[in-house]
Design goal:
The chain is mainly beta and 76 residues long. It has strands at 29-35, 40-45, 64-65, 72-73.
Length: 76
């Protein structure tokens, strides 16, 4: 499975205070997520916030346009 590391974009390390390419550092991994559906292993470094994924039945699937009236159905 491919590996995609979730870490700060401000540094090569997991510490955003160590700008650029710091010397003598270790990448500390706090969690490892496995996304079997998409086939990725995601090590999570530092205090990065992760965005929630789409559920198995997202609300957009219930939105439609009534072709007779032109009104949108299923928004709320």
């Amino acid at each position: 499975m491919p590996i995609c590391i979730a870490k700060t974009h401000l540094s090569l390390s997991n510490d955003p205070g160590k700008k650029g390419v710091p010397k003598k550092w270790q990448l500390r991994i706090r969690d490892i997520l496995i996304y079997k559906g998409s086939g990725f292993i995601v090590p999570v470094a530092g205090e990065i916030k992760l965005m929630p994924g789409t559920g198995s039945d997202p609300a957009y699937r219930r939105i439609d346009v009534d072709l007779d009236t032109g009104k949108v159905k299923g928004l709320f």
